[in-house]
Specification:
- The chain is 78% helix and 0% strand.
- The chain is an all-alpha fold and 322 residues long.
- The longest helix has 30 residues.
- The two termini are 17 Å apart.
- 51% of the residues are buried.
Length: 322
């Protein structure tokens, strides 16, 4: 099927995205609608397991080649580089101090796994092929951005030096462990394993994603309302501009290593997204004086909705053009 802006833009008018919009509306309307924390955690575990396993099974089918290692290296390079770009843009658009600018910048080299999962769901719904091993690239992009942010902060004498305890905390993050582990299991068991788990990880996937995005919409809207005094117009501009800049870096790397149009789209989504799970946890530990109300609200309340509603159609158009 042709990979086109029109087809993917139409694909955004699907239940998953519209449930996210419903969550935003409910939050802004101060509705008491909520998803129990336990249920949201189970859905998060399910989505990570499903997308990791399917990516591993896809790699087992296609085999390992030089392009896989090139994509992993590209992902690591992007994750390390983008926080420096984000920090530079923040210094131009905002008056954030070095510590908070470094904390925010670290979120924009790491990735939003939910944005990535949603992008994959849209491609699968449209029958667009992509490289399954990009799930492994997503896992690789979690850590280097944190290192970059801590290095930026250290230059100003702020933050906690990188040590073994901090590294164990970062590498032991549950989302990374589950994503990498399920990818490895999928790669080992291949298509036979995928057939065995098909009723569990394929059939219910879209429905679970819809409910999870409803919860994400509620969280994004409420976080933005709660911390709106800390989010200046310059930060909002950054939260919408930086994903576009990141996507262009992702497109350049995807073109360089020869990814398909679907793969290029996913690389752009990874480079455009901002972490609101792994990086905030690391920042609270390593940069305790930075303001979570700024970096978490910006990643979850501004960039996440931007990517889901406006960003992905734009990235699809660019991926098709180049």
């Amino acid at each position: 099927m042709e990979f086109s802006f029109a087809s993917l833009a139409g694909g955004l008018l699907v239940p998953t995205i519209l449930f996210f919009v419903l969550g935003l509306i409910a939050a802004f309307a101060r509705s008491d609608l909520s998803i129990p924390d336990g249920a949201a955690k189970i859905m998060s575990i399910y989505l990570l397991l499903a997308i990791g396993f399917k990516g591993g099974a896809a790699m087992a089918k296609s085999g390992i080649d030089a392009q896989i290692f090139a994509a992993l290296a590209a992902g690591a390079a992007l994750s390390f580089l983008l926080p420096f770009v984000a920090y530079w843009v923040l210094r131009i658009l905002t008056n954030l101090d070095t510590l908070n600018a470094a904390a925010v910048a670290g979120h924009y080299g790491s990735i939003s796994i939910v944005t990535f999962v949603t992008a994959i769901s849209l491609l699968e719904a449209r029958g667009v092929e992509f490289e399954g091993y990009l799930v492994a690239v997503a896992a690789v992009m979690e850590v280097p951005a944190i290192m970059s942010a801590l290095w930026i902060a250290a230059r100003s004498g702020a933050g906690t030096p990188i040590n073994s305890a901090l590294m164990r905390h970062i590498l032991g993050n549950g989302s990374i462990v589950l994503l990498v582990g399920s990818f490895a299991i999928g790669a080992i068991t291949g298509e036979a394993g995928l057939r065995d788990l098909h009723p569990f990880i394929v059939v219910p996937f879209t429905g679970v994603l819809a409910i999870f995005l409803l919860d994400m919409g509620l969280s994004a809207g409420r976080s933005l309302m709660k911390n709106r005094k800390d989010i200046s117009p310059g930060l909002i501009a950054f939260g919408c501009l930086m994903p576009i800049i990141g996507s262009l870096f992702g497109l350049a790397f995807a073109t360089l290593i020869g990814l398909s149009s679907g793969g290029a789209f996913l690389m752009m989504v990874l480079s455009a997204s901002a972490s609101y799970i792994a990086v905030p946890a690391a920042m609270r530990l390593a940069l305790p004086d930075a303001k979570p109300g700024i970096y978490l609200s910006l990643a979850l309340g501004v960039t996440f909705p931007f990517n889901l509603t406006l960003g992905m159609p734009l990235y699809a158009l660019l991926a098709e053009m180049f």
